[in-house]
Design a protein that fits this description.
Blueprint: E1 3-4, H1 5-12, H2 16-25, E2 32-33, E3 39-41, H3 43-57, H4 62-70, H5 72-109, H6 116-123, H7 130-139, H8 144-155, H9 158-180, H10 188-204, H11 210-222, H12 224-227, H13 240-266
Amino acid sequence: MSYSVGQVSAFAGVTVRTLHHYDKSGLLSPSERSPAGYRLYGDADLARLQQILFYRELGFSLDEIAAILKDPQANAVELLRTRQRQLRAEIAGLQRLAEVAERAIEVQRTGVSLTPQERFEVFGEITSDLSYATEAEMKWAGSEGQRESMARAAAHTKEDWRRLMGEASAWRAELLAAFDEGEPSDGGRAMDLAEEHRLHISRWFTSCPPEMHLRIADDFVADPRAFALVVPPSRQRPGLAAYLRRAVRANASRHAGSRTERQEEDR
């Protein structure tokens, strides 16, 4: 039995133009012609079309399909294996994107509802970079501290954020003054500022032991987006992030020394 181009187009789900293109390229030329010269497709032609559409669905190019159909035994298996690896990589990439979207939604849910004017009044130049916040959420998603921090941030009222940002602003002014006045990063003033920052995190977000504070300080140096949440770019100085990290390290060492002394006293 033979079928016209229009009939094949209808039941195969491809356009007439596509069938004409396959014919012109030699990929699928109908084996028959009507007395009036119209293309007619036989059963063998339809079977070949099914193969073409199968490989097209898998993402093969027309040239690759032509090579496979020319010698299926020599070409199909290896090309299918290669495509399988590519598809798995694409699936993994899409799963990663889906996870990123999910985390971005979680980050956005923690935001406080403010008008643009209120947001400027509360946060000033401090702005949250969604890409950084999402990466942080993905990085720490399995930790109890991250879950607590997200939950507490979501529960903060506008007044809470005003108080929080007020504390942060006063602390930032002290940090800049210490840095500008040449206070050593391992001196008492700088370590006290590091401790104040650690307690600020504990007070408003999640318990922040010195070990966690060290990881946070490492991010300040490694990622400008992280440090911009502490000191806006317009207020930053060269070396300030590294100065704060050294102060955090010195403060962590001070805590470790205090613990050792207490342990000695308990013996």
